[in-house]
UniProtKB/TrEMBL annotation:
InterPro entries in UniProt: HATPase_C_sf, Heat_shock_protein_90_CS, HSP90_C, Hsp90_fam, Hsp90_N, Ribosomal_Su5_D2-typ_SF
Top-rank taxon: Eukaryota
Cellular compartments per GO CC: cytoplasm
Molecular function via GO: ATP binding; ATP hydrolysis activity; ATP-dependent protein folding chaperone; unfolded protein binding
Bias (Basic and acidic residues) ranges: 331-342
Name this protein carries in UniProt: Heat shock protein 83 isoform X2
Pfam families: HATPase_c_3, HSP90
Family under the similarity heading: Belongs to the heat shock protein 90 family.
Region: Disordered, residue numbers: 322-343, 781-806
Binding site for ATP: E132, N136, D178, M183, S198, G199, Q222, F223, G224, V225, G226, F227, T277, R472
Keywords (A to Z) from UniProt: ATP-binding, Chaperone, Nucleotide-binding, Stress response, Transit peptide
Length: 806
């Protein structure tokens, strides 16, 4: 199935010198048309513009000299002089006179259906009409330049090669003029009268077949429908064209949804042009906003900034000057009576408005230059201007790819991480600007040119091989784009690798702080580039808690007998270095990577291995540290085997099994995850997900292994308790508390925190009971004994009988 491309190169072939290009010829492959061309001043062929000057007095004086009445020494007719005015006004009170009647022609296609296809389906954005028409004008200028090599007489009118755009917002018209090859009467019929016939395509074929075909041409359109993009915004289009091969100037006129067009000879001497094409668009009511000069300037800078010919727009300008102010009669009489003071003329500053041409595509595409000739300052300035950045990029890469697919590109690594909506999960960052033959096509991609984990990379890509109508469907299925993507990704990694190898380590530390998470995402999404991503990763480790190390540094520090790369996932370095899983590895001086970012564990699991060294999670079962003593293991199993079964019976379904651990030295026990289940860190992360699936959570955390340290005093006491009385309640409660404690120390979340707290308080009460206090009765006894009464003298009183008196 063919595809319609968005632009077509203008045709300058002598036999079919059409110049109106277009994009995408797919579903309409049976049709043929020529690219149409651009026009100069905003004055159309049927209306007369009158320019006005507003003086300080407020009087409006018409300036009957139109914008084309005066010629520039270099450009002749195409450069008008400055015309003072507050706005480019057209006399709207009188409608333009009807054009002369010309010969009527029928389109060589089913126009009503095809035009509807072009206007409503081919282009998704109305703004591209200006891009298409400017590209046609550029093609016309290029064709004239090529042909003038063998026919110098074509340049007998000394007119500069340029494109000029003028707007009339009051009448809703846009006029685009070029000084290119122009068209004869027959070429108008052949090219504009036959939709989807590309004169540019014919011209390129002629160049290819000719012995005189030299270097690559810059012609753009090849599909012959770009001219008809004018009908996206226009009800009527008038093309006035003069070919240097003809003495007459002709006018082509067509309307939207019409099945015919007219061609007539230009007879008005005021509207004659020495060479080229003038294209006048009569905008639809809803699209008259395009007739504002500011809107046109913005579109040109966005889409056609790097067209190789100067583009001028008709702009309103102003300058400040002082003018005299009429004196107040009362003040004048007072000054006359004084007669002593010298009179000073009163003035005020006013802004004088005028209209003049202004070139708006002064920026040159530096990607077309030799990288050796471009300075770092030029790269940085281009980056700031193109992407509206205020900081210089951290790195840049300028390269040209040749061979099967040819394109030029400049890539940048920003100095800071993107903010706002441009996050790592959003591939539509508008960071890559795609050009086709220096004409901007799009920056709205969904991972077609760069994977989303490299979406922070900014740059421009200019290809001559892509069709101009680069729709998302074409990008997704294009073999050219797939090749471009591979090479762009490869160059991006080379640029990042260059930062990592810099003598200044702070450069890569800065990059990793900003974009480290993006590369980790690449481990998950891009398996083809694991070998390029892995050397760029950085992690903390048990032997480097302050400074991150690379996987290459880890491998260099490995023990001779070490076979695997060990890691532990946690929420912080502090938590990781205090986990009980590390105890035996630290004793053996084995380095362990600390994965403290939420994405780290998934990234490492997707890498699986690095330089033939497997990644091993030390928090999972079947950890092999390379030290196996079968006799010792057999003795321990014989001694503690029944105790393990006893503990398993008590814990029930909470654990899959109870085993003797080879990873503990100071802790009594630890709870490890199943070999193929989630780790404690992953389980914590999955629980925190907003849309987490409870059923999958239960499935993935199903297997847990309780490992005990047979050399720890608590385990020895439990073993003794089992041998003496396996039903002892205190021993069974100790097992429950041991399990809950292992849950917490291993990074899991207790199922019943309140119950765990109660057990801890109970154990604390038993441990602290009577340590700093004594029973109440004993306390009173001790206090009474310790109290020494004062010595008192007693008086002996003799007994007296009751009722008697002494």
């Amino acid at each position: 199935m063919h595809r319609l491309s968005r632009r077509s190169l203008s045709a300058i072939l002598r036999s079919a010198g059409s110049r109106y290009r277009s994009s995408t010829a797919a579903a309409a492959a049976v049709l043929s048309s020529c690219s149409s061309h651009l026009a100069d001043k905003v004055v159309d062929g049927d209306s007369n513009l009158r320019w006005y000057t507003v003086l300080a007095t407020g009087r409006t004086i018409p300036n009957k000299a139109g914008p084309f009445s005066q010629s520039n020494s270099n450009n002749g007719l195409f450069l008008g002089s400055r015309f003072e005015s507050t706005a480019a006004e057209t006399d709207a009170s009188s409608s333009p006179p009807p054009p002369p009647v010309g010969e009527k022609y029928e389109y060589q296609a089913e126009v009503s259906r095809l035009m509807d296809l072009i206007v409503n389906s081919l282009y998704s954005n109305k703004e591209v009409f200006l891009r298409e028409l400017i590209s046609n004008a550029s093609d016309a200028l290029d064709k004239l330049r090529f042909l003038s090599v063998t026919e110098p007489d074509l340049l007998k009118d000394a007119i500069d090669f340029d494109i000029r755009i003028q707007t009339d917002k009051d009448n809703g018209t846009i006029t685009i003029t070029d000084s290119g090859i122009g068209m004869t009467r027959q070429e108008l019929i052949d090219c504009l009268g036959t939709i989807a016939q590309s004169g540019t395509a014919k011209f390129l074929k002629a160049l290819k077949d000719s012995k005189d075909a030299g270097s690559d041409s810059n012609l753009i359109g090849q599909f012959g429908v770009g001219f008809y993009s004018a009908f996206l915004v226009s009800d009527r289009v008038i093309v006035s064209t003069k070919s240097p091969k003809s003495d007459k100037q002709y006018i082509w006129e067509g309307e939207a949804n019409a099945s015919s067009y007219t061609i007539r000879e230009e007879t008005d001497p005021d509207k004659l042009i020495p060479r080229g094409t003038r294209l006048t668009l009569y905008l639809k009511r809803d699209d008259k906003g395009f007739a504002h000069p500011e809107r046109i300037e913005k579109l040109v800078k966005n889409y056609s900034q790097f067209v190789s010919f100067p583009i001028y727009t008709w702009q309103e300008k102003g300058y400040t000057k002082e003018v005299e102010v009429d004196e107040d009669p009362a003040e004048a009489n007072k000054d006359d009576q004084d007669g002593t003071t010298e009179k000073k003329k009163k003035t005020k500053k006013v802004v004088e408005k005028y209209w003049d041409w202004e070139m708006i595509n002064e920026t040159q595409p530096i990607w077309l230059r030799n990288p050796k000739e471009v300075t770092t300052e030029e790269y940085n300035e281009f980056y700031k201007r193109t992407f509206n950045e205020y900081l210089e990029p951290q790195a840049s890469s300028h390269f040209t790819t040749e061979g099967e697919v040819e394109f030029r590109s400049i890539l940048y690594v920003p100095s800071i991480t993107p903010t706002g909506k441009d996050d790592m999960v959003n591939p539509k960052t508008k960071n890559i600007r795609l050009y086709v033959k220096r004409v901007f096509i799009s920056d709205d991609f969904d991972g077609e040119l760069f994977p989303r984990y490299l979406s922070f990379v900014k740059g421009v890509v200019d290809s001559n091989d892509l069709p101009l109508n680069v729709s998302r469907e074409i990008l997704q299925e294009s073999r050219i784009v797939r090749i471009m993507r591979k090479r762009l990704v490869r160059k991006a990694f080379d640029m990042i690798l260059g930062i990592s190898m810099s003598e200044n380590k702070e450069d890569y530390e800065k990059f990793w702080e900003n974009f480290g998470k993006y590369l980790k995402l690449g481990c998950i999404e891009d398996r083809e580039n694991h070998k390029r991503i892995a050397p760029l990763l950085r992690f903390f480790s048990s032997q480097s808690e302050e400074e991150m190390i690379s996987l290459d540094e880890y491998v260099e520090n490995m023990k001779p007998e070490q076979k695997d790369i060990y890691y532990i996932a946690s929420d912080s370095v502090t938590s990781a270095k205090n986990t009980p899983f590390l105890e035996r590895l630290i004793e053996k001086d084995l380095e362990v990577l600390f994965l403290v970012d939420p994405i780290d564990e998934v990234a490492i699991q997707n890498l699986k291995a690095y330089k033939e060294k497997n990644f091993v999670d030390i928090s999972k079962e079947d950890l092999d540290l390379g030290e196996k003593n079968e006799e010792k293991d057999k003795a321990l199993k014989q001694e503690f085997g029944q105790t393990c079964d006893w503990i398993k019976k008590r814990l029930g379904d909470k654990v899959a099994s109870v085993q003797i651990s080879n990873r503990l030295s100071s802790s009594p026990c630890v709870l490890v995850s199943g070999k193929f289940g989630w780790s404690a860190n992953m389980e914590r992360l999955m629980k925190s997900q907003t849309v987490g699936d409870v059923s999958s959570l239960e499935f993935m955390r199903g297997r847990r292994v309780f490992e005990i340290n047979p050399e720890h005093a608590i385990i020895k006491d439990l073993n003794a308790a089992f041998l003496s009385n396996a039903e002892d309640e205190d021993a069974l409660r100790a097992i429950d508390l041991l399990y809950d404690t292992a849950l917490v120390s291993s990074g899991f979340t207790p199922e019943n925190p309140a119950q765990l707290g109660g057990k801890i308080y109970e154990m604390m009460g038993m441990a602290l009971s009577g340590k700093w206090s004594s029973p109440v009765g004993v306390q009173h006894s001790v206090s009474s004994e310790s109290h020494v009464p004062e010595t008192l003298e007693a008086e002996v009183v003799e007994p007296v009988k009751a009722g008697s008196q002494k």
